[in-house]
Amino acid sequence: MDTAHPPRLLAVDAGLRAGIAVFGEDGRLREYRSTNFGSRSRLKRGVHGIMKRIPGLARVVVEGGGGGFAEPWQREAERRGLAFRAVDARVWRERLLRSRDRRTGTDAKQQADTLARRVIEWSGASRPTGLRHDAAEAIAVGLWAVLDAGWLDELPEPLRPA
User: Fold this and answer.
1) Per-residue pLDDT tens for 9-40?
2) Residues forming beta bridges with residue 29, ordered by sequence position
3) Residues 60-103: pLDDT tens digits?
4) Which terminus in the chain has less CB density within 10 A, N or C?
């Protein structure tokens, strides 16, 4: 871990097309994007580069590990001595979404998009021209992860379900 910089958390919605979200120790979103690795070999190479570019990276949280897509993230996190956690979508959805908003996967994805846009606004991050579902889910996973890590004591009022 880079101790010269404030700690950062990397949240990933894993897959060949992956959502990436980086949070600061204050629980606010710093950056987010969707990236298309296109192949498993490019995914394996790309994970190293992504982690290398995040100063102060301390934690990595990955959702969507089916098909072996979480393993490159886990291996690179362990190689760097970073805290790593894989989380199932049901876990973060239960904490962040109302039960009626997670009845179906489609409902949950729509609500993750709404939540992600609120996180972007609350964090003062640049607004998206378009927000892919994988980036939205990475933002939601990251919000759950900063709560889980204790970087936020509770869900801030603007981000609580209405």
Assistant:
1) 999 999 999 999 999 999 999 999 999 999 99
2) 23
3) 999 986 778 999 999 999 999 999 999 998 899 889 988 888 88
4) C
CATH tag for 8-159 (out of 1.10.150.120, 3.30.420.40, 3.50.90.10, 3.30.420.10): 3.30.420.10
Work out the angle at residue 114's Cα, subtended by the Cα atoms of residues 62 and 144, and round it to the nearest 5 degrees.
35
Question: Does the predicted TM-score (pTM) go above 0.85?
Answer: yes
Token representation of residue 33? 């994007």
Give the residue carrying structure tokens 């009845």. 103
**Residue 27 zone, left/alpha/beta (φ > 0; ψ -120 to 50; rest):** left
The tokens for 89 are 């979508």
Distance separating alpha carbons of residues 82 and 154, to the nearest angstrom = 24
Amino acid occupying residue 126: S
Q: What is the distance of C-alpha 127 from the center of its chain?
A: 17
DSSP 132-156: -HHHHHHHHHHHHHHHHTTSSSS--
